[in-house]
Amino acid sequence: MLSLLKPNRMQVASWNVNSVRTRLGHITDWLKTNPDVDILCLQETKVVDADFPKAPFEELNYHTYIYGQKAYNGVALISKTPLDNVRMGFGAILDADIVGDLDDQKRVISGVLDGVRILNLYVPNGSSIGSEKYEYKLRWLALLKQYLIKTLEETDKLNVCGDFNIALENKDIYTDEKRDTHIMSSPIERETLRDVLAVGRSMEREHLKEPLPGGLADAFRKFTDEGGHFSWWDYRAASFRRNMGWRIDHHYLSPELYKQAKRCWIDLEPRKLEKPSDHTPVIVEY
DNA sequence: ATGGCCGGGGCACCCGGA
After folding, report:
1. For residue A2, is it within any domain?
2. Quick count: other Cβ atoms within 10 Å of Cβ A58?
3. Those residues with Cβ within 8 angstroms of residue A51's Cβ, 6 or more apart along the chain or in another chain
4. Most C-beta atoms within 10 A of its C-beta, which of A5, A22, A27, A260?
5. Crossing angle for the helix pair A132-152 and A187-197, to the nearest 10 degrees
6. Protein residue with the closest CA to the C1' atom of nucleotide B6
7. How many domains does chain A have?
8. With a cut of 50, which residues of chain A have pLDDT below it?
């Protein structure tokens, strides 16, 4: 009877796998060794829906929700229990005229698990500051804000996770060198993401310290203050061995969920394997 | 100072990644 009264603990993981087909064994192995993970959010699946390897996940009793394209991008949700109200792309809730070309690349999928909407994102990389891809990244983030505003009209329990391709603080990067002119740490990218995360924070509350009472807050920083914790390491220059990484994969939680959060951690193990993804999973429990 | 290494497409490198 007590179990009916106490809310279920949930674990949500985010992992940019850099090709779901190439990383299939790593992913299924990870699910087996992490049986408490309720939902795994994948980015960069790099496969059209017809060719997504659903069977290996279904054999492990997971439900798969996929939104992919050829060769690039692609996101998926791998869930122990069926999800409610699954949505693909910005266009699921925003008008086509404001979405424009921003759903051409498959980067957005979400579903509701136990009353919490889980939004899985693969934010554009941006290539280099000032490039066409950089402008696309900033436009994409501006549309994301509109998407979040609309989403928060229907729920106050929201976990926005994924590969954000932005490190918000200097301590999220192994070095201070050139960060102001580097993609993923430029002042404009950081300012744009901070503005996105401020959704739901009323004007009167703007002066108050983060993360409460409004806006989305970084689950990892609820529990860990120091730098040196990363989720991505360049394949080149033995970056992982030297821990020359970036923390660019995140779980941003709405206030109620942030209060509930019990743990948030980075699992380094998959990055140590042969032929790893360049990212490693980030898990939140609430 | 620069670039290093990957995956996909497709069969020679090129695009994109971050």
Report:
1. no
2. 12
3. A21
4. A27
5. 10
6. A235
7. 1
8. 203-206, 208-212
Angstrom CA distances, A16 to A100, A173, A271, stand at 25, 18, 11
Residue A47 in any domain: the answer is yes
User: Which segments within A44-153 are labelled E, that is strand?
Assistant: 63-67, 75-79, 84-88, 108-113, 116-122
Q: Is residue A284 part of a domain?
A: no
* pTM for the predicted model, two decimal places: 0.94
Give the span between the Cα atoms of A195 and A186, in whole angstroms: 14
Q: H-helix or E-strand containing A190?
A: helix A187-197
Strands A39-43 and A63-67: unpaired
Give the span between the Cα atoms of A207 and A214, in whole angstroms: 11
Q: Do A232 and A166 touch, CB atoms closer than 8 A?
A: no
d(CA A247, CA A179): 13
Q: Is A250 near strand B, with its CB below 7 A from some atom of it?
A: no
Q: Is A71 helix (H, G, I), strand (E, B) or coil?
A: coil
Question: Looking at residue A96, what is its pLDDT?
Answer: 97
Within A 74-103, residues with CB less than 7 Å from strand B: none
The pLDDT assigned to A202 comes to: 54
Query: A125: Cβ under 7 Å from strand B?
Result: yes
Q: How far is the CA of A27 from the C1' of B14 (A)?
A: 29
Q: Which amino acid is at A62?
A: Y
Per DSSP, the three-state class of A181 is helix
Residue A218 CA, nucleotide B7 C1', distance (Å)? 30
